[in-house]
Amino acid sequence: MIAYIIKRLLSAIPVLLGISVIVFIIMALIPGDPATAILGSFATPENVEKLNRDLGLDKPMIQRYFIWLGNMLQGDFGRSFSLNKDVLDEISERFGATLVLAGVSFVLCSILGVVAGALSASRQFGITDKLITLSVLIGISIPSFFLGMMMILFFSVQLRWFPVSGMWPIYGARDLSALLSHLFLPAVALSVVATGVIARLSRSAMLEVLRQDFIRTARAKGLSEARVIWRHALKAAMVSVIPVLGVQAGFVLSGAVYIEMVFQWPGVGRMLVEAILKRDILLVQGGVVFVAACYVMFNIVVDIIQSLLDPRIKT
Amino acid sequence: MNVSFQFDKLSKKFPARKGALSLSKFEVSAVKTVSLKIKQGETFGLVGESGCGKSTLAKMLVGLMKPTSGKIEIDGEIFDKPEPKIFGKKIQYVFQDPISSLNPRKTIRQIMEAPLKNLHGMKRPDRDSRIKELFEAVNLRLDFLDRHPHEFSGGQAQRIGIARALAAEPKILVLDEPVSALDVSIQAQVLNLLEELKEKFGLTYFFISHDLSVVEAVSDRVAVMYFGSIVEVGTAEEIFSKPKHPYTKLLADSAPIIGKPLTLNENSGYELPDIMNPPKGCAFRDRCNFSKKLCSQKTPIFKKVKNGSAVSCHYPIN
Amino acid sequence: MTRFMALFARSQLAFIGLIILSLILILAILTPWLPLNDPNVIDTSNRFKRPFSEDSILGTDHLGRDLLSRLLWGTRLSIAVGLCAAIIAAFIGSAIGVIAGFYGGHTDNIIMRGVDMLMAFPYILLALAIVAALGPGLMNALIAVAIVNIPFFARNIRGVTLGIVHREFVDAARLSGMSNAKIIINEILPNVFPVIVVAMSTTVGWMILETAGLSFLGLGSQPPQADLGSMLGEARAAIITSPYTSVVPGVMILIIVMAINLVGDGIRDVLDPRLKSGALSTPRSTTEVAKNKSDAGLKTQTLLSINGLKTEFRIGNRILKAVNDVSLTVDKGQCVGIIGESGSGKSVTALSIMRLVSSPPGIITDGSIDFKGDDLLKLSSEDLRDFRGKKVSYVFQDPLSTLHPLYTVGQQLSEAIQSHNHVGKLEKHKKALELLQAVRISNPEKRLNSYPHELSGGMRQRIGIAMALANDPDIIIADEPTTALDVTVQAQILKLFQDLRREKGLALVFITHDFGVISQICDKVAVMYAGKVVETGPAAEILKSPAHPYTARLKSCVPELGQGKRNLIAIPGFPPMIDNMPSGCAFASRCGKAEQNCQSAMVDIKKIGQERAVRCLFPEEIKAG
Fold first, then answer.
1. Residue B312 class from Cβ within 10 Å (0-12 exposed, 13-18 middle, 19+ buried)?
2. Which chain B residues touch A7 with a CB distance below 8 Å?
3. Is B21–A6 a contact, with Cβ atoms under 8 angstroms apart?
4. Is A115 in the same domain as A255?
5. Which element (helix H / strand E) includes C537?
6. Is residue B63's pLDDT more than 60?
7. CA distance C250 to B288
């Protein structure tokens, strides 16, 4: 087991390097001179040249990559010109907010999705199945940002149950209940799409498993139907559902960008969009590498859980 | 003796790894130095249980897999490149699962034309007359040509598979379990057809099966394979009635025969040796009732016994 | 194609989706010719006009532009962009996937590493990075969305290609002298294509959402041009005062994507080959019994008696009579063999006893199955559960697929014990050990913690048998338990069955296609052909002197070991298709002795001698034993 964990961790190294290379190449593709973009109206030729030297942009590509990588490994992600702030500081401040939002949504959609999918499969073609399938269909077809806007309109503006936006009240205590009331709408809006996707895949995984011979064996043993569904079928279905959960975590992180915009949530996603619109390249670069690295780590955890569930994975 | 084809010290190793973390790679032997000479016009049977390496051997013989070592000689010509296109004109293959050996998205005509076009560069009219000839030989109706594989039963599909193999005009057919996927009442039909075709086209057969009685019924000579090696070769009349290798005897005794009571030595463990840790000496010794000290020390070599039969055992049964 | 449409129309939802989608597409195509206001003309004096007001059915936006006109133009743009992205992603991704899957080895390794790198990003991050580099704009958003989706196609298609490359027909094509390029085009692509279509139809919706999303963030289409996403983005500021400016484009996206998803699901189902065979529906826990089944139960003294059993499969309009009037009795401690070829109905008969025939499409339409005087076909599902595994248990053919892959042997055995006896943990463990010893597994303590994949085929089948023994049943049904095993292992399993019978006084129903096996362990045999029992009686007598021509010919066409090379006496023709049974004797067309009256009417089974019966008008002569 430990050998497997070590192996997975080691295998993450080339992936992380690959991510940094991809991001570096994409950023190197930016047309025009980044120094000019950074300096904006202060872009006199001398200033541009000085900044280029400061940023190391006069050196060859490969050398630049390793300097950038080296700096990043030492925690130096550069300085955001639009915020006039260290990139890593800004990211670590913002990432907490994204983690709360995406984490809660992920837990929500995993549980709801799997249960709905399993329930739906066990009653194939029944009324429960039809209702779940229909709601799932709407769930995966609705743009999350539109859903978020409609939720604000209905629950915050019409019913006044929840605050309209933000993570904390402007005045008043920053306690758990304040956080929860701000979190509820965005977390739900964010989890709807992923719940739909997970429910769909869980349903088809369950249907696949329910056709397997070992399910017939379980029934031939005289087990109760509840046991057949929830112990035998669901466990086997989880083998194909868990990797999907890993992928969905990426979708939840992605969706967070929209939801953060709609609900003015102070997370990394909103930071990135704003940085792109202001062409704050270092901030974009740093943010993308940071979040992608976290996502890689998360997927390692998923793989380890998977190997615990399925003894056939070689440990 | 008129040798049709032979292979010498053919072996196949696959790379493997022991643990998740171990970096040391090592190799697993699926086929270990197998040598055989097949006579012109003969049906040579190969028997073995699952995992003994018989399919790997067959794939090497037709050029679908590159041998790790050894050489293949057909009609005096040496074939050392794993190039099915070169092999194809001399030696062809009939697959176990007749349905899965036919592309579900093609018509039978397209399937039949492929070897004629690619191996012999035939033009349309020639192809048509050749296909007609072949279909008559395997007793299939010509109107099947425009249908798709899923419309056929296993027996019919296997006839198509045989006709396709013959279209390449090979001298030798490797038949890899050609009837195991078929129903009992259809098996005899296909086996009899194969016999007819052999006469008609002057073919040589290399017939692989796990079913002793089928192999015995169709073969002139039979080889028994165990754990990647040939352990015994002999005539079809004698090999199972007077087995010399203890494994051949175990096979013969295990086959259910009408009227013969079930006999079994319960102590004979049925586990194959671990392919990752192959045993020293004779691979069969742990299951063998006759094994002595020598068997665990030295790997037995293949030696002739009498009139064409050979066995690799330190203490063959008389 | 017409068959495709017919299947498609069967799914109502997909059909509704298709209609909606077609309507939207027609509108989008016709937009330039419709009498609409210019979508980009700004008229600030008429801003935020409510829907259904004069000259503008859907009202106007914050710059006084006509919403209806903007909606249609936006729809046109969104669909076009989503579709383009899907086509580009599908084309490049599929090409990569096919090449990686086909060539394998290093090519595959390098390509897939690259794909894994791209997949290591949460997809929008990559899209954002690309847009950041290329600058905001609709074209750039399209490129970003396409690139981000390439890995999805590459991975899927590679997986499918890998599955095809190892199929035998690809080897056959190689032996036909085809080059790699030809094999990819002629053999692989036609088989991969349906998967590409399905993957595309299920992702177009996504891509439309994704491009709309980028536009919503202001990174896609730039003003004044508007797709649905940027319309929503612009309307967001007025969500509270004029919500309809958001609702209009939002609902449109929802409708488009939903219609596409419905159609995509429909395409997926239609292209799934299992739809036609009826295998898409999951088997229920108990086989359905027709309500109008006649009440034919005969109370008998025997342990198990099957009377006039009929089991059918109903697939679409076809009715397959898999078991057609089968009667059979099993006495205490007796071993009854059922022999027949595939499709003869032998397994369905056995599964009907447990009511484990996959249902739907299976349904038991007639007959009765009496076990110690109770008709099993009338049991409630609760009572049936109590009966399964306790009174009668079942051993299946393939020991790998019939054991749960994720539970240990010990867990599966204890569960079998637990299901009918509430016993303590310690006792369960003891009983599980006993069971493993009973099936002669060496080192049972260690094996309790093994998973099925760690065991050999023979060992797995022993576990299957141990599980069947868990509650000391009266009968074990063994459904070709040795067919998947090697001949040396088969002998051991047969011996085990024989010993267990002797030790525990078990009755055994043994299903096989091998006369040798019947001869070695059965007391009585029933020969099945085309859903009917054609001959029954003591095994030794039937094997010595079969009465039905089918039995006689089947026996003689199987080579028997020890006779050297010889010609075989084949049975001509094929078994009848079970959806098209002849009215008379099903074997008549293959039988050398058939007369006119064999074909004209059903042949009844009749007794010959004390214990034998045969369904034939001209049975073979019985040689005296």
1. buried
2. 20-21
3. yes
4. yes
5. strand C532-538
6. yes
7. 76
Check if C223 contacts A (Cβ < 8 Å). no
For residue A98, what is the domain's CATH number?
Answer: 1.10.3720.10
Q: Which residues contact C551 (CB under 8 A, 6 or more apart)?
A: C527, C534, C535, C542
B186 touching C, CB under 8 A? yes
Q: Is the pLDDT of residue C612 over 90?
A: yes
β-pair partners for C310 = C324, C366
Burial-class residue C477 by CB neighbours within 10 Å (0-12, 13-18, 19+): buried
Closest to A74 in 3D by CA, of A90, A88, A60: A88
| Residues C2-33+54-279, CATH architecture | Orthogonal Bundle (1.10)
State the pTM of this model.
Answer: 0.86
Across the interface, of C117, C218, C406, the residue whose CB is closest to A22 is: C117
Subunit contact A222:C398, Cβ cutoff 8 A: no
Q: Count how many domains chain A has.
A: 2
Q: Which residues from A are below 8 Å from B when comparing CB atoms?
A: 3-4, 6-7, 314-315
ipTM for the whole complex: 0.90
Query: Do residues B102 and B215 share a domain?
Result: yes
Q: Do residues B129 and B155 share a domain?
A: yes
Q: Is A18 within 8 Å of C247 when comparing Cβ atoms?
A: no
Answer whether residue C10 shows pLDDT above 90: no
Least confident of B79-88, B102-111, C107-116, C494-503: B79-88
Inter-chain touch A220–C354, beta carbons under 8 Å: yes
- B168 shares its domain with B258: no
- For residue B241, give the chain C residue with the closest CA: C562
Q: Can you give the residue ranges of every domain in chain C?
A: 2-33+54-279
Q: Strand, coil or helix: what is B124? A: helix
The CATH number for B147's domain is 3.40.50.300
Provide the Cα torsion B231, B235, B239, B241; round to 10°: -170
- CB contact (8 A) between residue C489 and residue B270: yes
Mean pLDDT, rounded, for B1-6: 77
Residues B162, B244, single domain; the answer is: no
Q: Is the peptide bond before C35 cis (omega within 30 degrees of 0)?
A: no
Domain identity same for B307 and B189:
no
Which residues of chain C neighbour A296 with C-beta distances below 8 Å?
A: 120
A250 assigned to some structural domain: yes
| Distance between A242 CA and the closest CA of chain B, angstroms | 21
Give the domain extent around B264.
230-318
Residues A132 and A251 grouped into a single domain: yes
Q: Is residue B115 part of a domain?
A: yes
Structural domain contains residue A198: yes
What pLDDT, on a 0 to 100 scale, did the predictor assign at position C161? Answer: 93
- The verdict on a CB contact (< 8 Å) between A295 and C122 is yes
- Subunits with 3+ Cβ pairs within 8 Å of B are A, C
Q: What are phi and psi of B98, to 5 degrees?
A: -65, -35
Q: What percent of chain C has pLDDT over 70?
A: 95
Q: Tell me, what DSSP letter sits at residue C285?
A: S
Chosen from C20, C75, C124 to mutate, greatest number of chain A CBs within 10 A: C124
Its domain, for residue A219, covers: 92-309
d(CA B145, CA B126) in angstroms, rounded, equals 16
Q: Give the nearest partner residue to C516 out of B92, B153, B255, using CB atoms.
A: B255
Length of chain A as a residue count = 315
Is the same domain home to A210 and A269?
yes
Q: Do C176 and B164 touch (CB under 8 A)?
A: yes
Chains that touch C (3 or more CB pairs under 8 A): A, B
pLDDT of residue B167: 93
Residue whose token pair is 């799932």: A136
Smallest Cβ–Cβ distance between B84 and the set C175, C554, C565 belongs to C175
Does any CB of chain C come closer than 8 Å to the CB of residue B21? Answer: no
Is C194 in the B-facing interface, judged by CB distances under 8 Å?
no
| The pairing of beta strand C524-529 with beta strand C335-339 | parallel
Tokens at B73, concatenated: 């000689």
